[in-house]
Amino acid sequence: MLAELRIDLGAIRRNAAALAALIAPARLVPVVKANAYGHGLVQVARALARDVERIAVYELAEADALREAGVAIPIHVLGPVAPDDLEIARAIGAELTLWDDGGYLADIARIVQRHGGRLRVHAKIDTGVARLGMRPADAPRILARYARTPEIELAGAFSHLAAAEELDSTFTREQLATFEEATAGCGAATERHIAASAAAMLWPETRLDAVRAGIAIYGCWPSPETEAVMRGRGFTLEPALAWRTRIVIVREVPAHTPVGYGCAYHTKRPSRIGVIPVGYAEGLPRSAGDRAQVLVAGKRCRIVGRVCMNMAFVDLTDVPYAGPDAQVTLIGTDGDHTVSAAELAAACGTIDYEIVARLPVGVPRVYVASDPPAHGAAPGR
Ligand SMILES: *Cc1c(COP(=O)(O)O)cnc(C)c1O
């Protein structure tokens, strides 16, 4: 085994329970897109399926994989579904995201008519991300049209916030007001949702009927500011993932010797350089070179030189007892030290979302199921 991800499904369930308690009576809808933010789509969805009423994915293929794996609860597909795939969406009972009132709506109606029944949809309104969704000005008309369309059931109306993790709430409040106005004509049977993790924690008024939470479920924070505010209020999350590997070989290198591609790094002193079998193809960004730290034998050690495609270099000079096969922690705790996904991300000039979402599917994942939520309560009900 070259590298391994250890994922605590109990921590994920406890995070979900803590969030569900925080946002109640709003309903928690865990987001398991991008292979459950690298944590493993099927395993995470199965672990959460008994605790929640619905989960959300980005694409239809993820919903299909979950149905194959026996996950039977409602699944909302947040992203676009190609017209050619609407048959599959209907067959597996996926809940679609809809903003069109032209040809695509007609495609849905035609397919549903062939089989009978109705397709559950969530209408998407763009209130300020300029990504998916209908314009707020068009929403009252299009939502009314959906309500009159017998082939669909308007299960939800939703939007997405652009800057909820920032402590200035001006734009968030404008988006919320726009959304509330655009959906004022919706009946009580239509669930309204706008908040993701950051808004659900920082801005209680955005919780509405449901919250689509991704990053927080995994024990990561949407931003350092969110973490500071929530810790100040006594709210914590448990990171669910640890990423570990082992030293393959240790090189004794004199001072002023180049290490790695481009001779970009030169040792400053006689050094012990450890090679780890993790490079950018394994999910360690190239930008980690000379910036990020890992834990070896309970001590912080620097990644030096350029990160290669499948390998990287660690300066072991200060841990002389760490030889080949010594354990290396890229994310997680060793002894008194912890490297969080957020720390690794900051060293690489990115955010924890990107680090975990890009952990390759091929890295072995070992699942542990520590204790379920203490109170045993089913969150989100
Ligand atoms: C990814 C996503 C979420 C979850 O966001 P987090 O910040 O990870 O909680 C919610 N809604 C939509 C539309 C998304 O794309």
Structure description:
With 381 residues, this protein is of the alpha/beta class. It is built from twelve helices and 20 strands. It has helices at residues 9-23, 33-37, 41-49, 60-68, 86-91, 103-115, 139-148, 170-182, 197-202, 224-232, 341-347, 352-357, and strands spanning 3-8, 27-30, 55-57, 75-77, 96-98, 119-124, 152-158, 191-195, 210-213, 241-246, 249-253, 258-259, 265-266, 271-276, 293-296, 299-304, 312-315, 327-334, 337-339, 365-368. Strand 12 (258-259) and strand 13 (265-266) form a beta hairpin. Helix 1 crosses helix 3. Residues 376-381 have low confidence and may be disordered. The structure holds pyridoxal-5'-phosphate. Pyridoxal-5'-phosphate binds next to helix 9 and strand 9.
User: Structural class of the helices, strands and pairings?
Assistant: alpha/beta
Distance between the termini: 41 Å
Tell how many strands the DSSP assignment holds.
20
Low-confidence runs of at least 5 consecutive residues: 376-381
List the helices and strands and how they pair.
Layout lengths: L2 E6 H15 L3 E4 L2 H5 L3 H9 L5 E3 L2 H9 L6 E3 L8 H6 L4 E3 L4 H13 L3 E6 L14 H10 L3 E7 L11 H13 L8 E5 L1 H6 L7 E4 L10 H9 L8 E6 L2 E5 L4 E2 L5 E2 L4 E6 L16 E4 L2 E6 L7 E4 L11 E8 L2 E3 L1 H7 L4 H6 L7 E4 L13
Parallel strand pairs: 1-20, 2-9, 3-4, 5-6, 6-7, 7-8, 8-9
Antiparallel strand pairs: 1-10, 10-18, 11-14, 12-13, 14-17, 15-16, 15-18, 16-17, 18-19
Helix pairs in contact: 1-3
The structure holds pyridoxal-5'-phosphate.
Pyridoxal-5'-phosphate binds next to helix 9 and strand 9.
